[in-house]
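[Q] Does anyone have a clean structure-token version of this?
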Amino acid sequence: LRRAPARRRWIGRAFGGAIAALCLAYVAGPAIWLRMEADARTRTAETRTIALEDGSRLQLGPDSAIASEFSAGTRTVRLLAGEIYLDVAHDEARPFHVVSRDLDVRVLGTAFNVRVSDDGTEVGLERGSVNASGAVAGNAVNETLAPGDLVAVDRETGQTRKEKIAPED
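[A] Here you go.
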């Protein structure tokens, strides 16, 4: 049997290496991107409480990540993954927004929970009032929540489900 010329072997190895690199990027890429984008994150079975500069507090659930942006006119927290519970300090001059892949939750002063999963987004309100709006799967969402309300949006169908829960839950 003859051996393949050295040039063909080099091309085959380079092609194999490129395929391996693409597979690695496909598997590890999203986690690396999330790490670069997040201001704070938690790992499996870890929770973390964060005091924000405006006096608001938030608690990150397990496997969660956020990015925050505070300016003179607005306060925004982007929920990149997982779940957060927020106790927002009232400030009429700077509205507070929590943005997920599906919804923008607008707040002035309240305590509520937002959870993002592969299936969609849930917003539950303990006290105060929030408005959850957005467009999911071609359906407009615009829900104002009262204490004890839970709104869940299905990412695939765009269907919205609203139910009552115990506010302490």
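[Q] Thanks! Anything notable?
[A] The two ends are 72 Å apart (CA to CA).
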